[in-house]
Task: structure prediction
Amino acid sequence: MGGCDTTEIIKKFGTPLYVLDENYIRNTCKEYISALGEYGNGLIAYAGKALLCKKMCKIVASEGLGLDVVSGGELATALQAGFDTSKIYFHGNNKSRQELEMAVKANVHAIVIDSFFEIDLLNDVCKKLGKKQAVLVRSNPGVEAHTHHYIQTAKVDSKFGFFVDDGTAEKAIATIAKSSFLNFLGLHCHIGSQIFEVTPFELAAKKMIDFAAKVKAKLGVTVSELNLGGGFGIEYIDEDRPLTPKEYIGLVAKQVKDYCKTKDMPQPKLIFEPGRSIVGPAGVTLYTVGAIKDIPNVRKYISVDGGMHENPRHALYQAQYKVALANRLDETCTEKITIAGKCCESGDMLARDVMLPPVKSGDNLVIFSTGAYNYSMASNYNRNLIPPIVLVNKGKAEYMIRPQTYDDIMNRDV
Ligand SMILES: *Cc1c(COP(=O)(O)O)cnc(C)c1O
Result:
């Protein structure tokens, strides 16, 4: 990876270890920017919740991306990294007063409003600070997409945002338009994750543009920004067939352009927010195999030195991964194996029924596509330490996040 031999990396940094390929991240950023380039007026905002630390902020900033944050902690990270706040969007269905104050003071580009409660709260925050804040309205267009399927629903059952079809979103915009402290900038929607098709994005885009035309006619307000969210799929297993950024974004952007023309509407600034697809495939996790338990005619378990504390995705939602033995990559896979973590929890598995060469204790397992939603979801469950992240590039391997120590996990104990 990145010109480095992973078995050498293990000798130097130990396991468990997250490894991230900087060039892969940068190239993906470039592909996204170029895919949106033809549209003219657009922004790619990296969804920081996939993986955020100061170095990640610096990498995406230097590639010209904006940033989505969803908490005060993510915003604080971006601010410390010196991220240009005029490219920061703040999302979330229950931001606190303190978080909103922090965002307004920092002059973030837009706060994405998610509820009537938040309209009042933000209005009050701005009034007290004597500042005006630009906002987007998180709208639910009734298109729901996940992995290989999408559905068009009349479904109001989501914790996020305002439903379009029942007039709630329009009511939210009308309320915002009356405020002297909030500046309505446009609409946001995010229709799901691990999406492998363009159609649901196109449907959502059309729905949002129709809605923009309606609010212009009825309320006289202009949608100058249209943010269509993220959710672009990546390859975790062989069945996953992701499209390229050009295929996803290039096509949707063209559709938005054409559809605005037919509706005689000015082209809004267009924003996409990929997270997983920027950082997910750029990362792997390296482990050392310890205990092996073969229950004849039932299952063979191998236990590794990581687990759900550093990758909770299988335990949370049966996520699947491709795996290999980093030190024996060229050997034939003949055994069906289940990979267990070291946490005291029966559900602590990392992968189930995957094929590997006959595994021995001391082998180095690699799990692929762990760059997104692994470190960012990690915990100190069982007081295990969260592994460090090593960034590899041009044959060099360096810490991007240093190892935790036992003192780190005890230093807030009273
Ligand atoms: C999670 C999220 C994203 C990113 O989703 P990915 O699947 O990581 O691309 C973008 N926008 C919003 C609002 C999100 O909640």
